[in-house]
Amino acid sequence: MCGIVGGVAERNISNILIEGLKRLEYRGYDSAGLALINGGHVLRERRVGKVANLEQAVIEAELTGSLGIAHTRWATHGKPTENNAHPHISGNVAVVHNGIIENFQELKDDLEALGYVFTSQTDTEVVAHLVNDALKSTPSLLEAVKQVVPQLKGAYALGIIHTDHPDELITVREGSPLVIGVGIGENFISSDQLALLPITNRFIYLEEGDIARLTRETIEVFVDGQLVNRPVKELDATVSNASKGEYKHYMLKEIYEQPEAIQQTISQALNGNALREDFLAQAEQDFASIQQVQIIACGTSYHAGMIAKYWFEQLIDVPCQVEIASEYRYRTPVIVNNTLYICISQSGETADTLAALRDTQKRAAAKALNICTMAICNVATSSMVRETHHSLLTLAGPEIGVASTKAFTTQLAALMLLILKIGQVKQSIAEKTVTEIIAELWHTPKVILDTLQHNPAILHLSELFVEKNHCLFLGRGTQFPIALEGALKLKEISYIHAEGYAAGELKHGPLALVDNEMPVVILAPKDDMLDKLKSNMEEVQARGGELFVFADEHSGIKTKERQHVVHIPSISAVLAPIVYSIPVQLLSYHVAVLRGTDVDQPRNLAKSVTVE
Ligand code: G6P
After folding, report:
1. May I ask the CATH architecture of the domain 250-451?
2. How does strand 233-234 pair with strand 497-502?
3. Whose alpha carbon is nearest atom 2 of ligand 1?
4. In the list 16, 97, 425, 529, which could disulfide-bond 287, CB 3.0-4.6 Å?
5. Which ligand 1 atom minimizes the distance to the CA of 353?
């Protein structure tokens, strides 16, 4: 998704801006650009494709400057071309923008009537012209931006500079993330703090509606025209630990980090085989009054929610619904009293999930309903964590690969901890069951480590996939969402068309697709559904389908003609979805590598989807 980096300093910052953009590359983008103010001119370079192309252009043009803005663009309005890449310029104003200006067409019509000429198809360009126009009535860049902001509808973040203001960077946060990186005698902005970590660990997190003016020495934040105080927060050094190390791709590194990530996530909540007394203690009263749960999420996080639904209902007898945020937010769902709303999100910034949360809060308040909101999130400083009553962090560390892996399995671990906690508060789970599940949770990192030992066998299976165009993933119970997740992973990074199905649905449609050319991946832990799943496997084989089975080592399922089996170490049925995530991640990873795709930044996708 689009990324913003900007800064005002005494030194040349072109290389800092480029480095910042490189650190945002993982989010997904299709073009990049940079503008610097130097000697009363705006110096700009833009390139389609990788930041490296832009870097080369900046070096060749010898662009330098101590005030500048830079951007990676993920096309929403207009194709990924150089003209559509940011920054956009009008007169002496340059602008970078994340998000969407919804009323841009009306604004564009008005500006064209005033004689402004548009050189791009973007919504962003209206902002540059509007600021330029507002400067006719005020010499102050800040005042001009303050005049423009109320005219813009939508969710956006902006960085704005002007040749007559060589020590001034104006920034706006209105529905799209933006942080200020506080330096010594220099200050920076970015849509993601990760971009600024080489320069500072001190950040100001802007809030929705904030307009800020940065100079080398000062940072002023305004809300409705009034100066406000936003605290500077110092970031833990471990957050910055994001490099590929010995691994070929971030995704592979992140797959291998799962034992540790899960251990970290559960350690915050557990003391031996019990939940810590202080774990979510501040939420106990809310948990006591809830009667049902509504989970809202997107993508892989939605699959984590689907698994939690099984757990909530089976383990602690609490009704649970789960829905994709982009649907939930627009279908006017009934807000029910005494409901716990859980947003699951790796980034905590996903536009649809945030909008669904905000809408739910607003509608509950309007009806004076008692609801409680909670974020399960990997980013402590994210909007979602800040805007919910309670939060539970997944301690996975930064996840860079677009395809989510360790964020997903830590979400599952966190959800299980939450369920145990709610079950205890509501006394709807036996203490013995809590103790058993906690013992299994502690054991999970080891089982994952042992599962990772099967990597060579999974690589071997993936070689049989390279030429395939379609694939089915089947599972039952909590393995149904893992089937969906396996299919999502495979299509995201290898571009093979894949479908996940509940194996019981096979006869209701997908069986018609099965032939010699259709690989079918089966998830077969040792649980109550194993015999039924074996019947489903027979149905596939009888139609000439080729089976790729991840099966419990004690399942009795063996390799035979057109049936390839990788045995997975035994794990309790309840936690099996965490462990069975690993082979489907590895399978997709290897297939993608063999097909030569861009594993960490697959085409057309973004890590953090901060626009609708
Ligand atoms: C994007 C990412 C997915 C992620 C989804 C939801 O589509 O590519 O990996 O699952 O967004 O993101 P979130 O940050 O809310 O978990």
Report:
1. 3-Layer(aba) Sandwich (3.40)
2. unpaired
3. 607
4. 425
5. 15
